[in-house]
């Protein structure tokens, strides 16, 4: 029971952690995140409600939505940026993550406790910064930091901005959706782009009047937003009707801050991810309780005379039930204490596995946790204790005092059903382990369409001076840039016109050597080359998915795209194999690759370097030296493509290891349950076994006799578990765009393994019963 409780309580800790987001202040109930529907930054180039908004949305809400008290613009958590470089005086720079730029209203929306400075004055002046207490201590140590200056460098070519510390806020005890280490006001969020066709994307949060109806708020937002889009369409030189073409529509929506963490765009919610874990933990707890019931009823033979004597002495049935429930409660308390000890031992590994920092005793929600544990203790005591108590209290005193227990030992059918239920869970886990291992192996060995080994990605834009210096380092084969690389993909939608048809593509801007650096596989035509001058003007390379939408042989074919008031022609020069730049849960987008800046381009923030030496560590150190020489105030950050690939599979591997662990626990608990029931049956059939031995039955025949009963139960459990496992595993596999065909042999293998394990377990107890002295069993007491 302690093992089952441990798994369940760990799950409770994690759920409490996830539900504690944005609960550090009661005033956050009036804060909403604004989401705008658009196609920019989307993984599939289709419109979705997104956390990133056109910065103009903030001013629109300030001016047109009367329910809004304060509105703020703040940087999103960009995937392609890990942090800013921070310098204090002449000290070496350090990378600080989650420093966010905002306007002056941030602390009017989010109410933090100021330890130094004040909410009204903190971001009043431009070039100011408010630090979290943890960061202030890291940079300056203890003491007053108001008025001190830090130099913040945002990217490698940035000269840096001197910011004055105007406040220090307390680190909340619970996690935050709009988390930060420092809030800066550089002045960039104070204004919107002048050109109507340009956009500056940011997150927008609003504090509204208390008691506002969310539905009415969203109705107001929709009307204001539609009116705005209608009035600005001519300025952007687009038709207002185009907002509604191909099923598109306009939407601006306010999401309560308390719901944001569980409802992220393009992500499966934490609750959906956790559902399989919750199911596993509940099953493990049920298996633990089942074992407790089976063990208690198996021991009931030894308690029968006690019950008989107490009944003869005048004990009521209710008194006996109360006694046995109290005994169960004491055992449950011991199990709960043992589980708390196990939790303390396992928490470090659990935190590492799930990338959280959970604590049992230092939990900010400890009181709620203790209430939940009390409820769990009560439930477990009733579930585990009532049935054995009812069985024991029902013994016939006259029968048990004669030594005849068979008439009072009822419920064998229920116990058999419980064993079947345990083995359904165990066999399902075994099948899941095998299938998940097959899928993991498939993904690990899948052809990504490019060579990920000896390839690093530096988080930087393309600087020719830096590129030239890196190219001169021995062991460097290629230096290039692209907007699309595993771990940092930047999808840009583009609509082309081919043979009178309009086709939507994903556009990737690259440098001349990028496809060679990636080691992509050429299927038709050629890739970009410096020998062809037109490659920098109007040529493109397609991937397989895009080529299928164009023509069977697209080489040499041309298409058009609209660029402001004119049409541009592009010629297709090659087709490459689809390569994976994101996870395996979605298919590779139809993509065209171009070197030219015509028709729009974007900042890549990826500098890929192909190495052709075994001494990669030494080469990377030389690259860092060149970087430091050019950008002394900004630290170089990079990742290997092998690491990026491992990160793509991280969630899958984490889930896999969790399933393996819980499967081992589940099978172990099931075997304990089987052992308990075989003990019960052996004791129940002691006189039968003794009689058979005296009449000449061998030990092997007796072992086989007891095994036969349980083999039937295990086979029934397998037959039931097959469709259950098929549904569960098939649903899991459907989460991958690229997956194996579900084979049959895991089902057969799980059946064979479960039968072997069951036979070995029962045989241990059956052999003990077969070797017992039959004279002792038949002697009348």
Automatic annotation (TrEMBL):
Please state where this protein is localized: Cell membrane
Domain of life here? Bacteria
The protein's topology relative to the membrane is:
Multi-pass membrane protein
Give the protein's recorded name.
ABC transporter permease
Which regions span the lipid bilayer? 277-296, 324-350, 370-392, 413-436, 655-681, 702-724, 744-764
Indicate whether Secreted appears among the record's keywords.
Answer: no
Alphabetized, the UniProt keywords read:
Cell membrane, Membrane, Transmembrane, Transmembrane helix
Major location, coarse class? membrane
One Pfam entry for this protein is: MacB_PCD
Query: Locate the ABC3 transporter permease C-terminal domain: which residues?
Result: 279-397, 661-771
Question: MacB-like periplasmic core domain: from which residue to which, for each copy?
Answer: 1-223, 425-624
């Amino acid at each position: 029971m302690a093992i089952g409780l441990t798994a369940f309580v760990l799950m409770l800790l994690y759920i409490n952690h996830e539900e504690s987001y944005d609960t550090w202040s009661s005033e956050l109930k009036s804060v909403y995140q604004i989401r705008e529907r658009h196609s920019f930054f989307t993984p599939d180039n289709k419109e979705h409600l997104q956390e990133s908004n056109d910065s103009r949305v903030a001013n629109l809400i300030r001016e047109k939505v009367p329910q809004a008290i304060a509105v703020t613009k703040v940087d999103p958590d960009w995937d392609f940026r890990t942090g800013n470089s921070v310098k204090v005086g002449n000290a070496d720079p350090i990378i600080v993550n989650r420093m966010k730029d905002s306007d002056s209203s941030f602390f009017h929306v989010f109410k933090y406790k100021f330890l130094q400075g004040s909410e009204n004055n903190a971001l009043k002046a431009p070039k100011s910064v408010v630090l979290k207490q943890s960061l202030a201590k890291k940079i300056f140590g203890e003491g007053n930091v108001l008025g001190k200056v830090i130099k913040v460098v945002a990217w490698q070519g940035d000269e840096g901005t001197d910011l004055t510390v105007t406040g220090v806020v307390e680190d909340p005890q619970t996690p935050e959706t709009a988390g930060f280490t420092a809030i800066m006001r550089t002045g960039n969020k104070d204004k919107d782009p002048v050109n109507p066709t340009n956009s500056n994307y940011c997150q927008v949060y609003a504090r509204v009047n208390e008691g506002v109806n969310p539905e009415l708020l969203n109705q107001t937002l929709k009307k204001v937003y539609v009116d705005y889009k209608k009035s600005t369409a001519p300025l952007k030189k687009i038709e207002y009707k185009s907002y509604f073409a191909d099923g598109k529509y306009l939407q601006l929506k306010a999401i309560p801050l308390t719901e944001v963490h569980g409802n992220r765009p393009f992500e499966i919610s934490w609750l959906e991810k956790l559902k399989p874990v919750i199911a596993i933990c509940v099953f493990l707890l049920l298996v633990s309780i089942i074992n407790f019931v089976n063990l208690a009823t198996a021991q009931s033979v030894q308690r029968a005379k006690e019950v008989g004597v107490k009944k003869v002495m005048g004990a009521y049935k209710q008194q006996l039930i109360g006694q046995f429930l109290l005994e169960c409660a004491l055992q449950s308390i011991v199990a709960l204490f043992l589980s708390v000890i196990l939790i303390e031992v396992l928490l470090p590994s659990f935190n590492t596995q799930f990338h959280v920092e959970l604590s049992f005793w230092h939990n900010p929600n400890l009181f709620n946790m203790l209430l939940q544990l009390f409820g769990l203790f009560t439930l477990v005591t009733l579930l585990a204790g009532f049935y054995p108590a009812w069985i024991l209290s029902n013994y016939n005193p006259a029968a048990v005092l004669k030594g005849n227990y068979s008439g009072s030992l009822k419920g064998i059918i229920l116990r058999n059903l419980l064993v079947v239920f345990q083995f359904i869970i165990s066999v399902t886990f075994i099948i899941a382990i095998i299938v998940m291992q097959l899928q993991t192996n498939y993904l690990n060995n899948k052809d990504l369409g490019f060579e990920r080994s000896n390839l690093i990605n530096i988080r930087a834009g393309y600087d020719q001076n830096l590129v030239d210096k890196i190219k001169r380092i021995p062991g460097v084969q290629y230096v290039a840039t692209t907007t699309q690389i595993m771990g940092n993909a930047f999808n840009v939608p583009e609509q082309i016109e081919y043979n009178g048809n309009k086709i939507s593509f994903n556009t990737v801007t690259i440098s001349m050597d990028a496809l060679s650096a990636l080691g992509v596989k050429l299927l038709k035509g050629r890739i970009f080359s410096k020998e062809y001058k037109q490659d920098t003007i109007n040529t493109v390379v397609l991937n397989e998915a895009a080529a299928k939408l164009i023509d069977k042989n697209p080489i040499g074919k041309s298409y058009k795209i609209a660029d402001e008031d004119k049409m541009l022609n592009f010629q297709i020069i090659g087709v490459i194999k689809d390569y994976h730049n994101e996870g395996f849960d979605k298919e590779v987008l139809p993509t065209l690759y171009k070197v030219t800046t015509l028709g729009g381009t974007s900042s890549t923030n990826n500098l890929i370097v192909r190495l052709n030496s075994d001494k990669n560590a030494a080469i990377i150190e030389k690259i860092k030296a060149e970087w430091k020489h050019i950008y002394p105030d900004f630290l170089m950050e990079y990742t290997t493509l092998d690491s990026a690939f491992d990160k793509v599979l991280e969630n899958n591997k984490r889930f896999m290891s969790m399933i393996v662990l819980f499967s081992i626990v589940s099978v172990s608990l099931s075997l304990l349950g089987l052992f308990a029931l075989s003990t019960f049956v052996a004791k129940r059939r002691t006189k039968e076994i003794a009689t058979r031995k005296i009449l000449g039955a061998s030990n092997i025949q007796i072992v086989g006799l007891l095994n036969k009963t349980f083999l039937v139960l295990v086979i029934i459990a397998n037959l039931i578990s097959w469709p259950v496992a098929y549904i569960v595993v098939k649903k899991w596999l459907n989460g991958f765009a690229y997956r194996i065909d579900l084979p049959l042999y895991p089902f057969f293998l799980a059946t064979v393994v479960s039968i072997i394990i069951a036979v070995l377990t029962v045989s241990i107890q059956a052999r003990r019963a077969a070797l017992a002295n039959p004279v002792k069993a038949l002697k009348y007491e």
